[in-house]
Amino acid sequence: MTYLVLDQLTKRFANWTAVDRVSLTVEKGELISLLGPSGCGKTTTLQMIAGFLDADGGRVTLDGQDLLAKKPNERGLGIVFQSYALFPHMTAAENVAFGLEMRRINRADRDRMVADALRLVGLDQYGDRHPRRMSGGQQQRVALARALVIKPSLLLLDEPLSNLDAKMREEMQIELRRIQRTVGTTMILVTHDQSEAMALSDRVVVMNKGRIQQVATPQDAYDRPANAFVANFLGRTNLLPGMVAGGPAGTTITVADSVWPVAEPVAPGPGALAVRPEKIGFVDAGGLRGTVQARVFQGTQWLFEIETAAGRLMVIRQHDGSPLPAEQERVMVGWRPQDMAVMPADPEAAGASREAA
Amino acid sequence: MSMAASSETDAPVPATAAAPPPPRRHRWPLVPYLLSAPGLALFAVLLLVPLTMTFLLSLNSFSFYGGIQDVWQWGNYADIIADDYFHEVFLRTFRIAALVTVLCAVFGAPEAYILRRMKSPWRGLCLLVVLGPLLISVVSRTLGWALLFGSTGLVNQGLMALGIIATPIEFMYTETGVVIALTHVLVPFMVLSVWASLQRLDPQVENAALSLGAGPLTVMRRVVLPQIIPGILSGSIIVFALAASAFATPAIIGGRRLKVAATLAYDEFLNTLNWPLGATVAVLLLVANVVIIVGCNRLVERRYKQVFE
């Protein structure tokens, strides 16, 4: 069932368009991530949904109701801010109770709901602490409890984990996922961290320069990126220039001296082939010829750099005892056709991939 | 023997790497004192010595024919404590100071908040207007008020021309006039002080309160105000201290009839030439100021102790 609909949502600032005709539908109970580099428009989109910024065009409907017509304090959304934005002069329990007070819920119910919310985030012992006396992770949990206790129709999370250290972040990811399963609230998560987005979301929305690049499940976006930007942004990738051609046996892409069958409908002409380093293996025939430039041992895996006629390739092989080529050895690399994605050549993105390599 | 042993045990330890470098101040114990000596000397010469001398002077006695007598006694304090006239002056001084402080907080805090939300270039321009009173000499500013407030002044003429009042309202030589003029002068201190505490306010906190269903007024009252209390308090301390010891404004607007502690002390020194009594008034003003300010500070800090950390 379609729950939240963004329709051609647009925000223009003085000299650039921060959000450019963004359209998206979110199902009830879904956790969806807006993912992209800083300045891609993800936070602006969130702020328009929350009502802190006015949209310059487009519509937002939540459960059939026009959201943009309501004031921010009438939208009933839960928001977790990057800075947590806790009220420093109130205790954790008072922070959580604030939204209930605004809804004029009686004292007894309020106390019970606050206790439940604090228990949900594992802070039942910390109700009378002030935010300054709590760690970043604990403050984060208070912010989450405060946003969840009002039973919001939609929970917006703006870079919620970016202020935590790496270990804490992983813990909170699991916690957030557990809470989302427990309460079943529809959530929109804004993040620039692709691993966070992939770990948490049902679907990711990859954005760049105010536009949506791809909407897909994390696995799909990772395995079959829609374009070079997505391929590069979601983890390390090898982007090889090639020539797409149609033939009697189906569409193929030719990369240097190798030919690969193409499943997706791509127009003939210059194209690009994206394949993940861990999907490439050493083969005996039917692959791309190259020379091992470097090999680095990384504990659980080996990292190879292979020089080929199509460019430099990064290859990751598991350290599982199988024989691996040495440096300067002539090799042939290959991959399964379903592990690669083919896209039209994008001069801009190709430049970005060269930078990344 | 023992020396040899100790050097042997010391030798293998890579002392430079393992031991933390000794704190420098142990080697130069006098340095902090030497560095702060100029400041301390200035403080002593310009503040402690005159204060002590004023206090000693307040213990002397005075007679119209014999002048200042070099005796030590508490007679001046007893006189002031016993005399209703002095009570009235001190009460008026602190009533004015308290009113000015409240008015400065009432106008200054919202002013600072509005200023912070303004966009440049309006923000800079409006800040300049707010700070304007501080840039003008106290005498010309106060005389300006006198022109505006006098019975033939612009305000009264205007109100009478509009038919709102029949006879001029007395601003000159009244407490109302002094309070208005002092508020005008001192409000910038409140604005600057609240401004500083607004800088530390996370702007998202207001959005958070909005998202939880609070209306704009509730956001102000429950979220913003408690967090800028430290700024309002420090502004109030500055305003109260300056208002209670203000001289030029009460002297010109209040005139000779409406005396406050500062003008009283001035008159004792320069008109009656009763220096010891003037010094006593000055000392009492200082003591009362310190007691009131410290007391209020304690009270507010205890009430809002979480935001003061």
UniProtKB/TrEMBL annotation, chain A:
Matching Gene3D superfamilies: 2.40.50.100, P-loop containing nucleotide triphosphate hydrolases (3.40.50.300)
SUPFAM superfamilies: MOP-like, P-loop containing nucleoside triphosphate hydrolases
Pfam families the UniProt entry points to: ABC_tran, TOBE_2
SMART domains: AAA
Residues of the ABC transporter domain: 4-234
GO molecular function, one term: ATP binding
Keywords: ATP-binding, Nucleotide-binding, Transport
Keyword Metal-binding: no
Name recorded for this polypeptide: Spermidine/putrescine transport system ATP-binding protein
Source organism per UniProt: Azospirillum picis
From TrEMBL, chain B:
Membrane-related topology note: Multi-pass membrane protein
Gene3D superfamilies: MetI-like (1.10.3720.10)
Localization, UniProt: Cell membrane
PROSITE patterns named among the record's database cross-references: ABC_TM1
Protein name as catalogued: Spermidine/putrescine transport system permease protein
Ranges where the record places region Disordered: 1-22
One Pfam family it belongs to: BPD_transp_1
Coiled-coil regions listed in the entry: none
Family designation: Belongs to the binding-protein-dependent transport system permease family. CysTW subfamily.
Segments passing through the bilayer: 33-57, 94-115, 122-139, 178-196, 232-253, 273-296
Residue ranges annotated for the ABC transmembrane type-1 domain, each copy included: 90-296
Top-level taxon: Bacteria
Species per Swiss-Prot/TrEMBL record: Azospirillum picis
Primary location: membrane
Keywords carried by this UniProt record: Cell membrane, Membrane, Transmembrane, Transmembrane helix, Transport
